[in-house]
Amino acid sequence: MPPNVRHRRLHRILAAAAGLATAGTLLAALPAGAHGSRPGPQHPGRFQDVQLLSFNDLHGNLEPPAGSSGRVTERQEDGTTKTVDAGGVEYLATHLRQARTGHPYSITAAAGDMVGASPLISGLFHDEPTIHALNKLDLDVTSVGNHEFDEGARELARLQNGGCHPTDGCYDDGETFQGANFPYLAANVTDEKTGKPILKPYWVWKKNGVKVGFIGVTLEGTPNIVSAEGVKGLKFGDEVETINKYAKVLQRQGVQSIVALIHEGGVPASSAYNYDCDSPGAGDGISGPIVDIAKHVTPAVDALVTGHTHQAYVCTIDDPAGRPRMVTSAASFGRLYTDTTLTYDRATGDIVRTAVTSANHVVTRTVAKAPDMTDLITKWKTRSAPVASRPIGYIAGEIGNTGTESPLGDLIADAQLAHARSLDPEADLALMNPGGIRAPLTYAASGGEGDGVVTYGEAYTVQPFANTVNLVNLTGAQLITALQQQVSGANEASPKILQVSKGLTYTLDLTKAGAARVVVDSVRLNGAAIDPAATYRVATNSFLAGGGDGFAELGKGTNVLVGGDDLAAFETYLTANSSAASPYPVPAADRIAVLE
């Protein structure tokens, strides 16, 4: 072994040993909700604290998100919980700028889905407003997420590099969109023809001799949750293999401190953002894909910033060498940010792993708004107002989008069935994917429209994907298989329960496993048992009709009829079935019986 290699390894071993010696006594002194430990007495000039601020899954939420999408659950010292209003880039900017104060070595990173499925104020302009906001936030780097591919790789490249939209042109007269000031990292997304990453695979932050490398990946299963057109010509590689590959590349370049930005995540045992998911032991309170990923990513990576599941957690999960490593996620929609301290050892160029501390913080709305963000929102809101403020219906109360079956899921499925029957009176039922419902319909006014009034902008926030409502023929047996795919195969670990139109009922037995969770004998349409040999006319959005979200059986339908835009179908239904005098009642969400 060359002497210089031995020298570096010895320093890393000594640094880790020093950290371990102090970890137990100092852990109790950490702030509430924080994880990790701090090193012992500082060696002047040797150790440098590097602040890592991170967030994920912003989804273009520039304005404070409404309803339950704009709140977080906070655990109190007595074990009770309360909800706190959170989010909005005017507040996020203030919180991040305050957090950076006194930290000359500070990096801001994100873990994907910065854009896509965005509210109208951003989505109407192909998310250019969000890129402008992220530039103002001084975001240093982000990984891509699955939603960065909603409009395809070419549009993602435009958001990175700038240029006017190929169809809609420039939104500012005489001014070309400049693109992102930060790199999007896509290490595991390659061109099928060349085999090369479509964007940078990694990036290195440098300051006064301190070097921290970042590797960015999205989940390997991205093609299953994005329209086929959005990922055409692309290949998505294994997250662990890709990160391990580029960690070696960074090490060969002399970068020993490495952070992975991974658009894949887990589910903590509690919805409280400050829940201790290291209780009773390290990583015991979290499940999901990120656990297996974290256990197999090379020990050369010092921390994992994750996303995708919209959950909040700060956990330590052992790496393959059995050493605890920080794994974080800051929920979604800009409601939280994570503040992680990485203690950099100048002697080794590596992070003193046991010195890493981390905690999630609420983006409260009690701080002053950042004036530059207010100006940005005002500019784009003014431009979108003529479209966004148009009333399209009335509701009697908040129609939520949470739960196995949600009231809003029922409403949307009914709207799609109504649209399908306007095209084909023989349509039998409609199925809607829960991931396509992005926000609740709030009763409280979002502007000057009044309580209970649904505006086009609010409806757009609920269904922003511009899917079509498609009709296909499925046999009864195929329909049963599709329902079973909610809880088996690709969806067994994290079920995706389809929202169903009026008339379709069945029982979901969560005490069982896999496909057996669907009680086949209970599946009925208008009270009649499903006939496996009969043909049913089924409406879904175009994403599901293409087999998206792991519903391969829905992609096998025949006699395809492509209908109209799903948002237009929703608007038509709500307009026809509600008025100021007779608002739409909150659906009961009683079509799927759940046994637990």
UniProtKB/TrEMBL annotation:
The keyword Signal applies. InterPro entries: 5'-Nucleotdase_C (IPR008334), 5'-Nucleotdase_C_sf (IPR036907), 5_nucleotidase/apyrase (IPR006179), Calcineurin-like_PHP (IPR004843), Metallo-depent_PP-like (IPR029052), YhcR_MPP (IPR041831). The keyword Signal applies. Residues 58-81 are annotated as: Disordered. Residues 55-311 form the Calcineurin-like phosphoesterase domain. Keywords: Hydrolase, Nucleotide-binding, Signal. This is Bifunctional metallophosphatase/5'-nucleotidase. It comes from Streptomyces cynarae.
